[in-house]
Amino acid sequence: MKRSLALLFSFTVLAGAQEPEKQVPPPGIPGFPGATPAVPEETTPTPTPGLAVRASKEHDPNAIAVADGDSILRPEMTGIDASELYFLYTQKRVILTSQASTVQAYFVQKGPLTNAEAAKLLEITLLAEGLSILPDPLDPNIVRIVASGPAPPSAAPTAYIDEAIDLPLTDQMVTYRMHFKNLKPDEALRVFQQVLGGNTPGGSLTAVANASSLIIKENSSLIRQLIKLKADIDVSSEITEAWIKLVYSDVDQVAEQLNEIYNQQSGAKSTTATRRTGAAAPP
After folding, report:
1. pTM score, two decimals?
2. Which of 100, 200, 206, 259 lies 20 to 30 Å (CA to CA) from residue 146?
């Protein structure tokens, strides 16, 4: 009896020793209960064809957007493509009108180009094709791209500037107040319109007589040209004095007639005067 119990105990110990160990599933393998989900690897977005863009978490205007040897190839760029490129180079949100979305432009440039340089060339291209870039006056991170047709985009607000130093360095549509010291605003308006040959699409010039000013809505580069022209024409008139010796005519009668002629031509506030003097005229 003792021998049978000992034999049974030995069989039980041997069976327990041969029992296979429970396998622990490795993490990340599907199909095993309690397995840790695998974390997908981060992938880099595929760049737009024709562009060599280096992605960065923070926008840097001086970062290389198009590497040396690469090119921007958009020979049939639409307004929608232009808005995507402008956001890529400036990280500014773009509001695009339906009319501007269908405009086509030719935009092909060789590298190397920084973000700021590519955005500048894109702005010039869009302006040449009749698309105006209007910054939002309340949010510097928002711009509007509108088509400058026969009717100006009056619904889109523009930044109001009254100092030349505050004009944007990029070519943008802004509203600028130009003050005159000597020239009348109506006369300045006439001169500017003759020089420009009329207003540009989306632009306007308005004379404000009581403020001795012109309200100019134009591209910033064109406004700078008008500022240079204003510096040359807004000058004071010099008053000079000339001696005229009369031999046969009466001095008082000639002076009266000349004053009447000048007053009729220049108005009641004429600064021209003719007077008689008994002193001898210089030779």
Report:
1. 0.44
2. 206
